[in-house]
Amino acid sequence: MALVKFQTENFRNLSPAPVSFSPSFNLIYGENGSGKTSVLEAIGYLGLGRSFRVNRHQAVVRHGEQRLTVFGGLDHGLTDDAGQSDNGLVHRLGISRDVVQKETALRVDGEGVRSLSSLAMHLPVSVIDPGVFDVVAGGPGKRRQFLDWAVFHVEPSFASVWQQCQRATSQRNQTLRNGRLDESLLRVWDRQYAALSDRINEARVNTFVRFKAAFEALVREVEVQWTEGLKLEFYAGWDTTQSLVDVLLSHREQERKMGHTLYGPNRADIRLKFQGRPVAETFSRGQQKTLVILMKIAQGMVLSDMGKQVTFLLDDINAELDEGHRAMLASRLQALRCQVFITSIERPLVGQLWPDGKAPEYRMFHVEHGKLTEE
Ligand SMILES: Nc1ncnc2c1ncn2[C@@H]1O[C@H](COP(=O)(O)OP(=O)(O)OP(=O)(O)O)[C@@H](O)[C@H]1O
C-alpha cells in the first residue's frame, strides 16, 4: 500500500494544507530549515507512532500547541508495470497526540484502535537517514530493532509475544534482585520466560533466513566487490544447542550477582563479519552506510515477496551517498516497486538518479516554510 493523501495539524512547522503523493517516487527539496525532514518525520509518525528523530513527542508538536495530528490515506500502491495506481483509498489512518495529557488517539478507517501495530501493519515505514548508520556501527540493540521491524511485518503476532516476554523478564529480574532468592518462584518465571523466548526466537530465525537470502541475492545483483567475504549470522541471545531453561539454571549465580537476566532474546544480535572480523572495525564509513542501505533494501524485498509495499523515507541522501551509490539505490528501489520519499537541499536531477533514462513515475515538491508545493 502507499500513502497518497496526507495532512498534518500542528506538526512542527508543517502547513495544514492537504497533499497528494505519488505511490511511486516523491522528490522533496528545499532550503535548510524549510521542513523537509519534518515531512518525513510526520509520515514516519503515522507508521511508527513516534518520531524517528527525537524521543519526546513534545519536541514535535508546534511550539505553543498542545495536540498534533497526522492523517493519511492509503491506496493499493503500484499495481501494474506502468506504475499506475487505481487511486481509490483503501485505508484511512490517523494519529493524534496530546502532549499535555500525554494521550495518543489512533484511528483506522474512522474507528478508534488501541494498538499502534494496527497502524504500523498498514504502513510499513523504513527510514534511511544519517542515523541509520548505527545499525552497523552501534550496539546489538540497534540490530535487534532492525530485525524486529521486519519480524513484526512478517508475523504481526510478534508484537504481543514480545510484550508478554518483556513483562516476564521484568518479573524475573525482580525475583533475581530479591535479597533472599526464592528458587522455586524463579523456576516458575524461568519456564514462562523460556517459552516466550522460544517463540520470539523462532519468529526471528524465520525472518532472518528470508532476510539473509534476499540480502545475498541483492549483493550478487549489485556486484559490490567489497561484500565478498561478508558473513551475516543471527545470534539468539543464548547458546541454542541447549534449552534456555538449562542455560538460565547453569548461570544462576552470575545472574543473581548482576540482578538481571543475562540470557535470552534481549541479548540477540545480527553479527556482521568480514573475513572473520566485525564489520564495524573493518569497513570504511561509506562502506558501512552502503551496507546498511543494502540491508534495508533486502528487508523491503522480504516484505515485497509477501505482497507488502514498504514506504522508504530517505533523508538528505546527497550528504550520505555519492552519485553512483544514489543511482544504485534509486534503481533498486524502483525495481522493488515500493513507495519512496527522497529529500535534498538542491532540486534533484532526475537524470542523475536514473542515468539510464528510465525514471519511474514521480512527483516533485518544493518546501518553503513548511508548505509543500508540487511542481
Ligand atoms: N515544534 C516545532 N514547532 C514549530 N517549528 C518547529 C518545531 N520544531 C522545529 N521547527 C522548525 O521547523 C523547521 C523545519 O525543520 P526541518 O528539520 O524539518 O528542516 P529541513 O528542511 O529538514 O532542514 P535541513 O536541510 O537543515 O535538515 C525549522 O525551521 C525548525 O526551526
Automatic annotation (TrEMBL):
<protein>
    <recommendedName>
        <fullName>DNA replication and repair protein RecF</fullName>
    </recommendedName>
</protein>
<feature type="binding site">
    <location>
        <begin position="30"/>
        <end position="37"/>
    </location>
    <ligand>
        <name>ATP</name>
    </ligand>
</feature>
<keyword id="KW-0234">DNA repair</keyword>
<dbReference type="GO" id="GO:0006302">
    <property type="term" value="P:double-strand break repair"/>
</dbReference>
<keyword id="KW-0227">DNA damage</keyword>
<dbReference type="GO" id="GO:0000731">
    <property type="term" value="P:DNA synthesis involved in DNA repair"/>
</dbReference>
<dbReference type="InterPro" id="IPR003395">
    <property type="entry name" value="RecF/RecN/SMC_N"/>
</dbReference>
<dbReference type="InterPro" id="IPR027417">
    <property type="entry name" value="P-loop_NTPase"/>
</dbReference>
<comment type="function">
    <text>The RecF protein is involved in DNA metabolism; it is required for DNA replication and normal SOS inducibility. RecF binds preferentially to single-stranded, linear DNA. It also seems to bind ATP.</text>
</comment>
<feature type="domain" description="RecF/RecN/SMC N-terminal">
    <location>
        <begin position="3"/>
        <end position="350"/>
    </location>
</feature>
<keyword id="KW-0235">DNA replication</keyword>
<dbReference type="InterPro" id="IPR001238">
    <property type="entry name" value="DNA-binding_RecF"/>
</dbReference>
<dbReference type="GO" id="GO:0005737">
    <property type="term" value="C:cytoplasm"/>
</dbReference>
<comment type="similarity">
    <text>Belongs to the RecF family.</text>
</comment>
<dbReference type="GO" id="GO:0006260">
    <property type="term" value="P:DNA replication"/>
</dbReference>
<dbReference type="GO" id="GO:0005524">
    <property type="term" value="F:ATP binding"/>
</dbReference>
<keyword id="KW-0963">Cytoplasm</keyword>
<dbReference type="GO" id="GO:0009432">
    <property type="term" value="P:SOS response"/>
</dbReference>
<keyword id="KW-0547">Nucleotide-binding</keyword>
<dbReference type="Pfam" id="PF02463">
    <property type="entry name" value="SMC_N"/>
</dbReference>
<dbReference type="InterPro" id="IPR042174">
    <property type="entry name" value="RecF_2"/>
</dbReference>
<dbReference type="GO" id="GO:0003697">
    <property type="term" value="F:single-stranded DNA binding"/>
</dbReference>
<keyword id="KW-0238">DNA-binding</keyword>
<keyword id="KW-0742">SOS response</keyword>
<keyword id="KW-0067">ATP-binding</keyword>
